[in-house]
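Quick one, T. Sequence first:
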Amino acid sequence: MLEPLDPAAAKTLIRTILDVGVVTFSRHAQEELGKDDLTTVDAANALRGGVVGPGELERGTWRYRVRTARLVVVVAFRSETELVVITGWRVGRR
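Structure tokens:
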């Protein structure tokens, strides 16, 4: 997979992975979501319905912020069938 993906392609791939791929949550993501009383289901819903921003290269990995009115979730693709949620937070609490 050639990255960075444009936001529309990233959105399509996120939805495909949610439907038929593997989504994992880093320990950091679980902790940060929990601090804001959010669940992995909240994060998955944000990934399905949110707006994907352009890729950002951080620590050698392309990461994509997915925003809704309520929260932000940051993901990285491991392959065309797997993504990992890096972190997430409720908008307005950071």
